[in-house]
Amino acid sequence: MDADPPADSLALQILGRSALFGGLGPQVLQQLLPHFEPIALAGGQTLCRRGDVADAVYLVCSGSLGAFGPGHSSDEERLLGLIATGETVGELGMLTRRPRMATVRALRDCTLLRLGDTNRLLRLMAQHPDALARALADLLGRVQWREDPQQLNPPRTFALLDAHAQLPLREAGHRLVEALRPLGSVLLLDSALGRGRDPAWHDQREREHRFVVYLADGDAAWRGTCIRQADQFLLLARVAEPPRPWPDAVCHSGADALHRARHLLLLGEPGDPAPHAAGRWLQGFHGSLDWHHLRGPGDWNRLARLLARRSTGLVLSGGGARGFGHLGVVRALRELGIAIDAVGGTSIGAIIAAGVACEWDDRQMLERMRQAFITGHPLRDLTVPLIALTRGTRATRLLRRAFDTRRIEDLAIPYFCVSANLTEGRTEVHTRGVLWKWLRAGAAIPGILPPLLDSGMVHVDGAVLNNLPTDVMHDRGIHDMIAVDISVEDALPASFEDAALPTLPRLTWEWLHGRQWPSLFSILARSAMVHDDASSRLRRKLATHLLTPPHAGGGMFNWKDHLRSIDRAYEYTMRYFEARQGR
Question: Is there a contact between 354 and 417 (Cβ–Cβ < 8 Å)?
Fold first, then answer.
């Protein structure tokens, strides 16, 4: 391998590639270089705090920084974004003469160049308007980034750590490398190659490859190096083994990990993931943690796409009987070879999404949904309407029969469903727990099905607050989304004017002669799906592909046309993607 370039030469290369300095040209950068001060930050060390005077501009030469802002409570921080090698910090404050807008802290060991003479930089920018225009374009992107609290820069380095020495760590490393290779150049860096190397050597390897997987296959010192060099942690365990405390204290919580993402990789056998096993492992960690069931090549490929921010999420809306159209969309996506890396939804959309997460084939999906919604007659256990029109017993029994004892965290594909928490007036996102229970909560149309009561909270149909939860999928770090909205054309028309119902005999006579009021079921169902237009528009805009397949013309409880709904949605989806492939 070639020798690493000298420090000054490397600094000039990084300056030349940066958005802020790159337009100044090599000769100007050569003159500016002596005015930069090299500094080093250890992982966890703070570079600047929110509200500080913006008295310098920093260029990241190696490592990664995190920008932090206020969290949901006064004593909490949240990670706004990741600042990667080649990016700058402080230029917005320099140009606007305003204090720092975020606290910036090293996520791992970093080296930076500090330019304290910002007036010199401003004079140079004035002399080179093209460079100034380039810098302003980059700043506009940063403003958009601050409005979107996501890490726009994908992670580049991963520490693959094992729960104990008996796990097939090297085999897992090779599987991950093969899955990442189609997405960019990747290096598997083990102890034989990396032990004893200085930070500059590691920085050079990271510049040469899109991804670097640090394999913690050596002694404690090498394991520590892997941890220090990582943007994210990959924690390898065998799902069927009894959980044990994780050996690296830095991985126990988000704060311990300096808010670097943690992924629990659960090795399993082909077939359904081991029941009730993931939850036992998850109990040993605190804070935000993703988990992945790995049973074969398909799962490793899904993991690679998630890590590289190249994954596709599917979001399914509620809409009653029209939800059978989701089955046609799923069938079309499978035939088109579009991999679904994460799935979630609301109401009937959540139920069908759960079938996708269970990896049911098209025949299984249709048969189980038909049993749950058509032959099972979930709304036939009418009761005295003190709380709802039905008792909810049949709906509960049918969901339990369809999904048995499955838990959300044991599903093969990452999954979520939503319910409306009426007690606290907010959308509740469910990523763990008994699957049928939260599907029952998320499908409880107010007035038709009784709410689900849990831990002092009252849960009803998620469509009350969020019928197309693309924002939830977006918050989970998946930006390439296929959203299926079957409620777009939903309406409850009135063919005549009236302010009060007539007497029962007169009402019956008018009903028989075609003058029909909307049914109580339709009124309650429609009431549960009336949303704020602005919020709904924003959620639809989050979708990369917004599908609005036509329904068969029936209402939300017209189950007899379910096959036509499936076929129409299938044909619509095939036409939609074929048209885009032809562009």
Answer: yes
